[in-house]
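Example: GAF domain-containing protein.
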Amino acid sequence: MQQQFTEIMEQFESVLQRQRSISDVLDRLMEVLGGRAIGLWRCQSGKLVQLGFRADSQMDERVKREFSALTQEVSLKNTGLGIVKAVIDQKPAIGTLQAKESGLQGSSEWLQKFDAKQSYAIPIFEGDQAIGVLAVSTNQVHQAGDPEWELQAQIAREIGAKQFLGMF
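Written out as structure tokens, the predicted fold is:
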């Protein structure tokens, strides 16, 4: 996983140098994580602003377009979504198909549409401030400590440490 971490971070740096698109990096990260969909958002003026969203090529195009359009800007009051909960609570949010268990009704509905089992949204910090979120939906059920979870968390930490979100 260390090699994949290094590769993904180098790709993020190449986005900043205009050598690659954020979509390319998210596609690669989604592949490494075994995801169905992946997104990156930055906090701005009481909302999350989408920097990039990608989905599995087999996913229904209408579902992809709908999610992308509805999450271009997301109010931080929409706590039924894991991406918002992760930022507000300043800790990872796990969405499942069982909305009552996860408390994330919006995420559960999207997981069904994505044909996925779980989503995990990891806040991105600059200092002690959550300034964004990196989220993936997957067919697998992961927990803290699993390699995929740890890789995503490591990438989110590094994005914050390098202050990448302010550069996109």
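The first helix runs from residue 2 to 16.
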